Every structure is written in C-alpha cells, then in structure tokens.
C-alpha cells in the first residue's frame, strides 16, 4: 500500500529532529488508564474538558468511537516496532488484547448506526485486526459490512457518497472529511474484488476534486448537491469560520485522503491534488508554525485558537505523501514539513497533566467547543510516531 523509503534517503532526513515526546514513556500508562476507565456498558472518549483535561465519553453510535480502540492497536504496532520495555512503558499491557476487547462495542454498529459516511472511521480497528490476523472472521465481516454501509450512500447522479442525511432527501450533502472514509472501500475491495467498491471510491474522489477544491488549493467544507439533477446547490461551511474559508481539519483530511487515493491508483491527478492541498496548508501557516483552527479565522483577538488535531492529521498526510512522491527529494520536502508540524504542536500542546496527550484541540469552534484534548488528535500523534519509525526516520526513543 505504501512505497518503502529506500535507505539511501536517510542522510537527507536527519535535517530536523523529531520531538522525543512522540515516543514518551508516559503515553502507554495514560492510554492504559483511559482503557481502565471505560464505562460499562462501553462508551468511548471523544474530547476532554478544558480545565482538567479529563475525557468525556460518548455512546458507541458516535463518529469518533473507533479512534480509542485504534489507538490501542497503534500501541500494539509500536510494540512490534520497538519491543516492550519498562523504559518505553509498552510493557504495561497486552495492547492487542485491549484493542480487541475495546472493539467489541463497535460490532453492533455494522448493521445499524447514525453515522452516515463515518462508517469508514468506525472500521479502523477491524482494518488493523486484519493486518495482524487476516482470517479473523469478525473483522472480515465488519470491514465488508461497513463498506456496504458506505456504498449504499453512493449516488451515480451526484457521483459521491452522501456524507450526512438531510431532512430534504434531494439535498445531498458531501463534506471534504468524506475523503478519509474511502479507505474502507479499498480494504473491502481487497477482500472481495468487488469492482463496484473501487468505482465508488474513484468517482467520489473525482467529483470532490472538481467541486471541493478552490483554485488556491484551499477547500470548501461542505458542498450540497441536488440528488435529482446532480448539480451543485451551494458551497458552505459547517465548522469553519466562514462559508468561503478553509477549515484546517478539513484541509488535513483532504491531504491524507488524496495521498491515499494516489497510493491505491497511481493516478497522477490525485498526487497533484494532494500536493496542491499540502501547499495551501503549508503556505498559509502563520510564522509561528501553529495550525490555526481555520486558516481564515481572524488573528485578533489573540491568541487565535489552534487545532492540534488538524496538525497531527496533516502530519500523517504529509508523511504519506512524502513516502509516495516519485522523486525522493520532493518527498523529503513533505516529510520535513510533517516533522516541523509535530515539533510545533508538541511545543504548544504536549500536556503531561491531562488524560489526553495533547491539548489545544478545536472540536467545533462555532459551537464553542475548543481548547480540549481530542481522541483523534492523540491517535494521529501516536501514528505519526509509528510512521516515522517505520520509515527509518526516527528511533524508538526519538
Ligand atoms: C477478531 O477481531 C475482533 C474484532 O477486532 C476481536 O474482538 C476478536 O477478539 C478477534 N478474534 C480473535 C480470535 O483474535
Ligand atoms: C439516512 O438515510 C438512509 C437512506 O434513506 C437510511 O437508510 C439511513 O438509515 C438514514 N440514517 C443515517 C443516519 O444514515
Ligand atoms: C432538486 O431539483 C428538483 C428538480 O428540479 C427540485 O424539485 C428540488 O426542489 C431540488 N432540491 C433542492 C434541495 O434544491
Ligand atoms: C470571503 O468572502 C468575504 C465576503 O465576500 C470576503 O470579504 C473575504 O475576503 C472572503 N474570504 C476569502 C478567504 O476568500
Ligand atoms: C504504482 O506504481 C508503483 C511503482 O511503479 C508500483 O509498485 C505499484 O504496484 C503501483 N500501484 C498500483 C495500484 O498500480
Ligand atoms: C493553547 O491552550 C492553552 C490552554 O490549554 C491556552 O491558554 C492557549 O491560548 C492555547 N493556544 C492556542 C494558540 O490555541
């Protein structure tokens, strides 16, 4: 799925050091404590309060539920990469067993859920399970079923899967975030060979490429189509600063989503789109390198709230893009930018005293939900550390 970085690249890569916190021994005990505090019947952490940094849990039928189980799988991956020792803290638990256990609460969602396109996110732990045990029938069923849940939301007239339901069924709403959920179609395609799933992923990505991206490489959060005619009704925001602004987390999802489409297809249009979105992201960063919650949100009153989750998601997107660039020197540019984002966000938001790893997440600024830890921000932080190790760009101690 991913082009390996050849070893001859290594000398170029040491230009900038990665933050040691990515591999901190306080990560495993924090995650273990969160696991132990999961309520029964199970609920999953989504974000923290803004004062103590304590997780707030949500019922399984929530779009973010799978990120905590996926975090447990990510620590299992890290154990595979680094070994489990008292000094790295990974000896504290059997992460695979915990990941499997925490995934069970997601299984009923395969058949009924209120998450629309976000079934792709809900499938993450099952996709990880299949990398470990490709014959796990529970995970195979989950992947196929979640892919089916997304596939039935596809409209050939619009050329997209529907992100959210609306009261008017002809109002067909698609958000840039939906690019992340296409991965479940690819995984299920790999299992079944069902060409329809591949066709849907490609068509959705092509339509989104046409309508969600501005000439400057910024993105619209929401595009509403008429499901009867397939025409665009309006472009607007849901969680951004303004209808015509670029909401940073959406931009991050787009970078990752298009790099991922390129990894599955080798279609250079996706590579160009991922580059275009990445360029917008990096050239619109303020001079302090901190990712704002929206690139067009006003600087005054200061400080303009950051979104640490947009930073960690973008870092993963840039690492993926960097690993796929046909010319390694081009790849190095994205990898350096990813490491820079991780350094900046660690300096701002690393929070040993909170239950989350990072603070300064913006869940939804218009809804006044910001300055929190966020479960997917932490997940992508751990994953970025794993990717850097896998790519030979960091050691297990930083
Ligand atoms: C198979 O995967 C599911 C879900 O990820 C997990 O709960 C279960 O324990 C796994 N089964 C085995 C035998 O590993
Ligand atoms: C959304 O609409 C589809 C099609 O009408 C329906 O099957 C589904 O249950 C609805 N709800 C959600 C949250 O997806
Ligand atoms: C979509 O187009 C149809 C046919 O022109 C029209 O009846 C319907 O109101 C439109 N829906 C929206 C949400 O604009
Ligand atoms: C968005 O639209 C407003 C009002 O037309 C305009 O003042 C602003 O410059 C636009 N912002 C961007 C980022 O295009
Ligand atoms: C993309 O190209 C690379 C390098 O030529 C090749 O290894 C890979 O199999 C191709 N992937 C796809 C999906 O065609
Ligand atoms: C980061 O979070 C702290 C409190 O947790 C807050 O005081 C600070 O203003 C935030 N900075 C940004 C840039 O969001």
TrEMBL record:
Q: Name one GO biological process term.
A: polysaccharide catabolic process
- Keywords associated with the record: Hydrolase, Signal
The domain of life for this entry's organism is Eukaryota
Q: Which SUPFAM superfamilies does UniProt cross-reference here? A: Six-hairpin glycosidases
Leader sequence residues = 1-15
The answer to keyword Transferase applying to this record is no
Cross-referenced Gene3D superfamilies: 1.50.10.10
Question: Recorded GO terms, molecular function?
Answer: chondroitin hydrolase activity
InterPro entries in alphabetical order? 6-hairpin_glycosidase_sf, 6hp_glycosidase-like_sf, UG_Glycosaminoglycan_Hydrolase
Keyword Phosphoprotein included in the entry's annotation = no
Q: Which PANTHER family match?
A: HYDROLASE, PUTATIVE (AFU_ORTHOLOGUE AFUA_7G05090)-RELATED (PTHR36845)
Q: Give the similarity note.
A: Belongs to the glycosyl hydrolase 88 family.
Kindly provide the name given to this protein in its UniProt entry: Glycoside hydrolase family 88 protein
**What is the source species?**
Roridomyces roridus
């Amino acid at each position: 799925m991913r082009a390996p970085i050849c070893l001859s690249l290594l000398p170029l890569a040491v230009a900038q050091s990665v933050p040691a916190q990515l591999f901190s021994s306080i990560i495993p005990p924090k995650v273990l404590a969160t696991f132990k505090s999961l309520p029964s019947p199970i609920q999953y952490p989504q974000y923290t309060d803004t004062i103590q940094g304590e997780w707030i849990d949500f019922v399984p039928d929530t779009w973010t539920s799978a990120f905590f189980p996926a975090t447990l799988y990510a620590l299992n991956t890290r154990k595979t990469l680094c070994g489990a020792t008292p000094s790295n803290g990974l000896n504290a638990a059997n992460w695979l067993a915990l990941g499997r256990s925490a995934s069970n609460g997601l299984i009923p969602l395969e058949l009924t859920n209120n998450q629309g396109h976000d079934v792709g996110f809900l499938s993450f732990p099952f996709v990880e399970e299949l990398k470990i045990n490709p014959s796990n029938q529970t995970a195979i069923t989950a992947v196929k079923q979640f892919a089916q849940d997304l596939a039935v939301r596809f409209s050939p007239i619009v050329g997209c899967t529907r992100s959210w339901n609306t009261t008017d069924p002809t109002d067909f709403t698609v958000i840039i975030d939906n690019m992340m959920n296409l991965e479940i179609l690819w995984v299920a395609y790999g299992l079944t060979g069902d060409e329809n799933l591949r066709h849907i992923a490609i068509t959705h990505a092509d339509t989104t490429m046409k309508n969600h991206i501005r000439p400057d490489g910024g993105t619209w959060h929401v595009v509403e189509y008429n499901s009867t005619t397939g025409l665009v009704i309006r472009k607007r925001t849901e969680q951004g600063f303004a209808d015509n602004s670029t909401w940073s987390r959406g931009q991050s999802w787009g970078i990752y989503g298009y790099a991922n489409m390129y990894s599955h297809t080798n279609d250079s249009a996706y590579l160009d789109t991922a580059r275009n979105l990445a360029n917008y992201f990096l050239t619109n960063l303020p001079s302090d390198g901190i990712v704002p919650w929206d690139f067009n949100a006003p600087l005054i009153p200061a400080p303009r709230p950051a979104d640490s989750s947009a930073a960690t998601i973008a870092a993963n997107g840039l690492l993926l893009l960097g690993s796929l660039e046909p010319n390694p020197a081009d790849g190095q540019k994205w990898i350096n930018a990813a490491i820079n984002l991780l350094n900046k966000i660690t300096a701002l938001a690393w929070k040993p005293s909170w239950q989350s790893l990072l603070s300064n997440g913006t869940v939804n600024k218009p809804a006044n939900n910001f300055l929190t830890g966020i479960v997917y921000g932490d997940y992508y932080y751990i994953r970025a550390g794993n990717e850097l190790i896998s790519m030979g760009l960091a050691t297990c101690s930083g």
